[in-house]
Amino acid sequence: MPELPEVETVVRGLRTSLPGCTVAEVRFGKTDFVENFAGIAERLPGMRVSAVKRLGKFICIEFGSGASTGVANPRANLIVHLGMTGQLTLLRSGEAVAPHTHAFFALDDGRELRYTDIRRFGRMLLVPESELADFLGQLGKEPLEISAEEFCALLGSRRARIKALLLDQSVLGGIGNIYADESLFRARLHPMRIAEKLSKKQLLSLHKAIRDVLADAIRFRGSSISDYVDSNGNRGEFQLRHRVYQRDGKPCFRCKCTIRRVIVAGRSSHYCPRCQPAPRRRKKRIHR
DNA sequence: AGCTCTTCCTGAAAGC
DNA sequence: TGCTTTCAGGAAGAGC
Fold first, then answer.
1. Reported confidence tier of residue A217, pLDDT bands at 50, 70, 90
2. Is residue A246 packed enough to be buried (19+ CB in 10 Å), middle (13-18) or exposed (0-12)?
């Protein structure tokens, strides 16, 4: 599933050759994952890519005004969320079309940017520059940019389970199920711990664990569990280095104890019961 | 505030 | 063998 490291890998790939290219033609297959597909098909041709960015799990392809359109065409941003199975790949226009490919952006250099998404949990929309600030305002903090102090302040007063908060995109943008579990393992925190009850030391440990895990995962070009590939169609390798994610029933790399799986915040959560001890259950009050 | 449940969608895997 | 059912999950919305 594409999370921050996978999206970052896709963005870095696109960034090497997409800026400067002009869109020649836009075509769509199914459009139920696109907001205002007709508007995108009408607006983008003639516009030139000026930058490619990552915002949490969103890919942001920034378009400046194209050479042919001039002042009448203000800046706009094509925002893409890969959902569960989304792929954004750059190919030559003539190449065979993979099944479930639903968006085609033909470029002026004979290549094509294609969006493929088996389950169509992904999303695509065009955000005018004037509305980008509003869009960004809904996103949580960047896990790789937030300071330790800010991280502690953000989570330390919340009464929700720590795993739920890590997955909440309006708190931190970019962490999904894989990296939440891997971060909690490294910080030795059980996913059901209540954030408010964590010590400063534990929060600082989690902040570092998140940074370390994400940086490692980016170095290995993300985790390919099922469908994830980068902009060149290559799989990542970080799935080979997961310590707990989808390792339930297998021995912990640290202590050999059997990794377990529980549902937290509606998600499978994998943890080592010895390295990540369960929170102490509240003592029952005895009323008289 | 925060939890659970449901919906979206398809393919893989399990069940019969 | 082959058909049917179940499950997985990011995000949003409903209801509690």
1. very high
2. middle
Nucleotides of B under 7 A from a protein CB: 1-6, 8-11
Comparing C-alpha atoms, which of A92, A142, A117, A96 is closest to residue A229? A117
Q: Burial of A274 by CB count in 10 Å (0-12 exposed, 13-18 middle, 19+ buried)?
A: middle
Element (H, E) at A52: strand A48-55
**B6 C1' closest Cα residue:** A266
Calpha distance A187→A201 (Å, rounded): 10
Supply the pLDDT for residue A73: 63
Residues 163-222 of A near strand C (Cβ < 7 Å)? 167, 169, 176-178
Which amino acids of A are annotated catalytic? Answer: 2-3, 57, 267
pLDDT of A74-108, one tens digit each?
899 999 999 989 999 999 999 999 999 999 999 99
Query: Which nucleotides along chain C are within 7 A of a protein C-beta?
Result: 8-12
A84 in contact with nucleic chain C (CB within 7 A): yes
Stated pTM of the model = 0.92
- Nucleotide nearest residue A58, measured CA to C1': C10
Query: Per residue in A186-209, pLDDT tens?
Result: 999 999 999 999 999 999 999 999
